[in-house]
Amino acid sequence: MKIDNVEIFVERLAGKGELNFVLIHNAGTDHRFFIHQIETLRKYGDVIQLDLPGHGKSELISDYSMRNLASVIAKICEKLSLNNICLIGLNNGANIAIDTAINHSLPIKALVLIDPPIFMETEFIDEINGFIQLLEGSGFDKFVTELVDALFIKTDTHNKKIATTAFNGVDKKSLQNIFKGLIAWNANSNGILKKINYPTLGILTDEHHCSYQKLHQEAPHIDIGKVVGSKCWATLEVPEQVNAMIERFLKIHIIKN
After folding, report:
1. pLDDT score for 257
2. Phi/psi of residue 127, each to 5°?
3. HSE of 146 in the Cβ direction (CA atoms, 13 Å)?
4. How far is it, in rounded angstroms, from Cα 243 to Cα 240?
5. Ramachandran bin of 66, using left for φ above 0, alpha for ψ from -120 to 50, beta for the remaining angles
6. C-alpha distances out from residue 235 to 95, 157, 160, Å
7. How remote is the C-alpha of 213 from its chain's centroid?
8. Range of the domain at 194
9. Rounded to an integer, what distance in angstroms lies between the CA atom of residue 168 and that of residue 221?
10. CATH number for the domain including 29?
């Protein structure tokens, strides 16, 4: 799909229900990080998977701010004439989903925010800045191997291969700029969740990224669940937990029996 003259990989998978699930992956990866959610979601509607600019099969863009990435998502939704939209974002993909929801007039039914890096502790921001510096030098392959080993607690080789090949295929400058955009976005995140007026599910993994207490204080209207056995990439590592939470959330708030 052409978005502002840039080729963006988008695939629409037909489902049985009336919802349209738009899946927004995390920095450095691609649409395959939601591979284990597809069949669960197709019970309730179509699934739209995509690669963010500079990732997977999508071309590069010049502006990787959270605001501009949200604009890309909004334009995809508009080109596909989607209604009953459920945005599902992983890690900083969740932050992109938030920005899309509050800054664009789309027919959104719900948000699912999986491990959103919001209200980040200084320690985690320092870690991201460290990633940015590493991307300046050589040894990216070693960095990817160490990152994948560090962020999976216990998973199979197939999931590790998805993560490794995705990171090795990303444009490094794009990844740097997304990380910089995330830090800038987080600096202005106080009060942002209060602007969300859709049913929203927050799924937390490592509270190093997002504190349960802080999220609950800032946004008591958001349903919050917590997975066990995963640090960061819960959609791949503990999909049965993620899928069960999403399905229950949909049945409580969205699906009409």
Report:
1. 57
2. -65, -40
3. 7
4. 5
5. alpha
6. 16, 15, 13
7. 21
8. 2-253
9. 38
10. 3.40.50.1820
- Number of domains, the chain: 1
Q: Which residue, chain included where needed, has tokens 């995140």?
A: 189
- Which are the contacts of 204, defined by CB distance < 8 A and separation ≥ 6? 115, 210, 212, 215, 224, 225, 226, 227
191-217, pLDDT tens digit by residue? 899 999 999 999 998 777 788 888 888
pLDDT-derived band at 119, boundaries 50, 70, 90? confident
What's the pLDDT at 104? 96
Long-range contact set of residues 155-159: C-beta below 8 Å, sequence gap at least 24: 155/236, 155/237, 159/233, 159/236, 159/237
The Cα 67–Cα 23 span in angstroms is 17
Q: How many residues does the chain have?
A: 257
Q: What pLDDT does 138 receive?
A: 75
Kindly state the greatest CA–CA separation across the chain.
55
Tell me how far apart the alpha carbons of residues 181 and 186 are, in angstroms, rounded to a whole number.
Answer: 9
Pair of tokens at residue 66: 């959270």
